[in-house]
Protein: Ribosomal RNA small subunit methyltransferase G
Amino acid sequence: MSLFDAAAFQAETGVSRETLDRLAAYEATLRKWQPKINLVGPSTLPDAWRRHFLDSAQLFPLLPEGARVLVDLGSGAGFPGLVLAIMGVPEVHLVESDSRKCAFLREAARVAGAPVTVHNKRIEAVPPIAADVVTARALAPLNDLLNWAHPFLQDRGAALFPKGQNVADELTDTTKYWKMRIERFDSRTDPTGTILRVSGIARV
Structure:
C-alpha cells in the first residue's frame, strides 16, 4: 500500500492549507506522546493519516445539515471528535474517562487551535449536553452506544458510528430494543467497514 501522507489527506478531503497545518500539529503531538501513553495501536501509527485522520474526516460530509454541537464518546486520542473540531464543527465535547488521555487531548487541542471541551468523566456521569450529533469510534456494540448517545441527542439529532464487518449482527440485536432510522455509507478507509448514521432514535 502506498504511503498516505498529509498531502494525500488534503487531496482526498479538500481541506484548506490552514486546516491541514492544524491537523499536522495534532499528528506531531500524537507521535510525541505515543511512546508515553498508548493512544493508538502502535502498528497503525506509520499510516496515521489514513487510519486515523482520514477515517475521522470521512464523517464530516455526513454530519446533519447545520450541526453545531457534537459530543464524541470515548474520545481516546481524539478520533473522530478532535479532527471534526479542527475541520470546523463549532462546538465539540470530548468525553474520556482516562485522565492521561484527557491531558493529551487538551495539549493536542491547544497546539491545533481547536476550542474543544474535554470532559474527564465516564460517559454516564456527564450531564446531558444538547447535541446535534453524537460520534463514537471503536468503542462498543451499537446497543451500548445508543444507550449512551440517547440522553445527548436532540429530537432531530443523529449519531455517526463507524462499524466493522459485524455491523449486521449488531443491527439485528439492537432492533430488539430501539426504533431508529438507519443510513449506511461505505467506509473510505476500511473495505469491510460501514458508517452508520442513526436518527429518530427511540426505545421500543
Summary: The helical segments are 6-13, 17-33, 48-57, 81-87, 99-112, 142-149, 167-174. The mean pLDDT is 96. The first helix runs from residue 6 to 13. Residues 91 and 172 are 33 Å apart (CA to CA).
